[in-house]
Amino acid sequence: MRRLLLLLTIVFLLPAVVFAQGDDDITAGAWEEIGEMPTARSEMRPVAIDGKIYVPGGIGEGQDAYMALEIYDTESGEWSQGANIPIPRHHMMTAAYNDKLYLFGGYSFGNFRPSEVAFVYDPETDEWTELSELPQPRGAGEAVVLDDMIYVVGGLGPAREEYPTLRYDPAEDSWAVLAPLNNVRDHMAAVAFDGKIYALGGRTQGQEYESIELYDPEMDEWTEGTPMNAKRSGFGAAVFADKIVVAGGETFSGGVETLSSVEYYDPETNEWAFLPELPVELHGMQLVAVDDALYIIGGSDVGAAAVNSGRILVYRLED
Question: Residue 35 is inside which H or E element, if any?
């Protein structure tokens, strides 16, 4: 009888134990500040290639755009310099594909008019090559790799009511114009996850979103997803430990506020939950996943401004 009761107790407790262990995979971590970047800046989108984080362009405190490409080695903690971007850029869209850095659109100097320029950087040759221009000028959006294509999602373009999704084919150096988001979103984030593109948060005309949209490339269609817990724009996002993680950002609708909150989406539960907060409030930065760690490089401490500290933050999963 005792053996039967013990067995039943284990059976009933097992699901709770399994759930807790799965949840702890991502929640049992901590943020740590581990250094500073050589040139403090914000509004740039770093990418990871072969264990290194490539940080192109960005904006300075005087609203100047940078040409610099700085490279952080996550193994050694050392920085190196790559070839400058051909023209200064901030608020551009970037993506890593086939061990190369792709850069699309963005703004230059104090000019906040979007651009249609496109370049690719090859770490092997330390050279930038100009690509076919975007079909439409764009800035403050996001670039996402899915099925050997690079999608430019959201952002600001010409004075139009909707901005189509743009798909770049690296093999053909060509563009296709696809369905727009259901809601105009700039300063949003996006990731590719489980065969779809997730467009997260963002804002339009000073109104932020907690809502998200999912893109099905086979249907060329955007549909509504499970909203985040917090409204945010100008934030970072990454796929990490089979979850979608978002961090930081800024809001304007209730007065200018910079965020330190971090949350993640679990596809198994279809729910968002919070992670440990950033040690500082930040916006204008990106989350970059490298192996078992999340990195944030740069960003601004003050909303609606480029008050750049150049911090390097890392979130590591505990053993």
Answer: strand 29-36
- Kindly list the domain boundaries of the chain, sorted by start residue: 34-317
Q: Which of 187, 145, 183 minimizes the C-alpha distance to 167?
A: 145
Cα→Cα distances 306→36, 64, 128, 300, Å: 16, 10, 27, 5
Question: Edge to edge, what strands does the sheet with 149-153 contain?
Answer: 142-146, 149-153, 164-169, 174-180
pLDDT(80) > 60: yes
Give the whole-number percent of the chain exceeding pLDDT 70.
91
Across the chain, what does the average pLDDT equal?
91
* Range 253-256 contact pairs with CB under 8 angstroms and sequence separation of 24 or more: 253/206, 253/207, 253/208, 256/303, 256/304
User: How far, in Å, CA of 160 to CA of 43, rounded?
Assistant: 23
Please name the fold of domain 34-317: Neuraminidase (2.120.10)
In the sheet with 236-240, reading across from the earlier edge strand, the strands are 236-240, 243-247, 262-266, 271-275
290, pLDDT greater than 90 = yes
